[in-house]
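Complex record, two chains
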Amino acid sequence: EPEVTQTPSHQVTQMGQEVILRCVPISNHLYFYWYRQILGQKVEFLVSFYNNEISEKSEIFDDQFSVERPDGSNFTLKIRSTKLEDSAMYFCASRTSGASTDTQYFGPGTRLTVL
Amino acid sequence: GNSVTQMEGPVTLSEEAFLTINCTYTATGYPSLFWYVQYPGEGLQLLLKATKADDKGSNKGFEATYRKETTSFHLEKGSVQVSDSAVYFCALSDFSGAGSYQLTFGKGTKLSVIP
């Protein structure tokens, strides 16, 4: 069964450093998402991406964040200058269509630790 | 805006006990409702969903009914197993204006089933 994959599973970085989190969505999916979950808190929406551009972003997704689909398979989240409060589990998700009834499929997550 | 409220955990049950995890929501439109499950060390997996009022989603013995009048989507299982130990997330997908239908999650309920 096709699945969303994410790398790395765990990333440790120093405050102020840039990190890139990578995702490979399911191959025939058209909509892509990043979510994050700070330990003990809710899973929060960061950004959605369709047709090679951001379709929606949350207040969390400020200028320090960017997303890219550099080729036909990868979908990346970049944090330019990490802060301590960026420490969280980051989930990538994808789905086939734009219908509200459609299921989003999630990857296993990348745990980001900022020291 | 949209929001999801789940009962606080953790919940500890004996094997074969009855499970209910309460979930209520607030939405501006007419959302689709989902339950996701996260097993230890894994990503979020869709457990079940319902897309309109009075729909019942079911999977692996779990059920939830979309109740528009009470804005609820409670998760139930008649007889839990040790293998059901996981974190359960209630979520909704609603039209956001930009068409991305991102998910709004509850905080998650950790279930532990003991033999």
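Note: Chain B has no helices and twelve strands.
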